[in-house]
């Protein structure tokens, strides 16, 4: 089966990370994730991320760089994460599609939300960028 990429944005602003609470489908609703979605045929991951952030949050953003790692989702999907930032003058993100709440999390608040299980290792990598550890991991 050909792998299909889901891109997630580690949208960063002032040392905080944007987390989004899914409103659907039922098995994922109420859990928190990185905004993003599936890369469509003919799109680069960066293009997909900019499109998804526009559609889901109503913001214009730019992609900064890839967070190292590939995390398995429901086959054939795998999660890739990119850091991104809002363009100057961009609107405040709003939960327009797929989400019903948003939170900007400081490094200290990173584990206050109930991340999707499959996002936890990805968020751990983002935590390194924010200079925060994961209190649930011993080292
Ligand atoms: N966007 C996003 N999706 C994730 C994450 N973690 C995770 O398991 N997923 C899953 C949920 C979905 O099954 C799939 C992405 O689907 P989606 O619904 O966000 O993507 P999309 O906007 O392109 O969806 P579609 O309605 O066009 O099918 O990946 C994550 O951090 N961000």
Structural description of this entry:
This protein has one domain: Nucleoside Triphosphate Pyrophosphohydrolase. It is built from two helices and seven strands; from the N terminus they run E-E-E-E-H-E-E-E-H. The longest helix has 13 residues, at 45-57. It is α+β, with helices and mostly antiparallel strands. Strands 1, 2, 3, 4, 5, 6 and 7 form a seven-stranded mixed beta sheet that branches. Helices cover 17% and strands 37% of the residues. The protein is globular, with a radius of gyration of 14 Å. The model has no long low-confidence stretch (mean pLDDT 94). Bound molecules: 8-OXO-2'-deoxyguanosine-5'-triphosphate. The site of 8-OXO-2'-deoxyguanosine-5'-triphosphate (8DG) has 15 residues, from strand 1, strand 4 and strand 6.
> What is the CATH H-level superfamily?
Nucleoside Triphosphate Pyrophosphohydrolase
What is the string of SSEs from the N terminus onward? EEEEHEEEH
The SS-based structural class is alpha+beta
Shape: globular
What is the CATH topology assignment?
Nucleoside Triphosphate Pyrophosphohydrolase
Offer a concise description of the structure.
The protein is α+β, with helices and mostly antiparallel strands and 139 residues long. The chain has 2 helices and 7 strands; from the N terminus they run ββββαβββα.
């Amino acid at each position: 089966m050909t792998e299909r990429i889901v891109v997630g944005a580690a949208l960063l602003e002032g040392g905080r990370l944007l987390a989004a609470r899914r409103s659907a489908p039922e098995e994922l609703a109420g859990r928190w994730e990185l905004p993003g979605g599936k890369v469509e045929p003919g799109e680069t991951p960066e293009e997909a991320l900019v499109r998804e952030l526009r559609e889901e949050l109503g913001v214009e953003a730019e992609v900064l760089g890839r967070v190292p790692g590939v995390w398995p989702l429901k086959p054939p999907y795998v999660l890739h994460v990119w850091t991104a930032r809002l363009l100057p003058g961009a609107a405040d993100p709003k939960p327009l599609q797929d989400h019903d709440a948003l939170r900007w999390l400081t490094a200290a608040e990173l584990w206050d939300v109930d991340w999707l299980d499959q996002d936890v290792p990805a968020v751990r990598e983002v935590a390194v960028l924010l200079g925060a550890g994961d209190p649930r991991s011993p080292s």
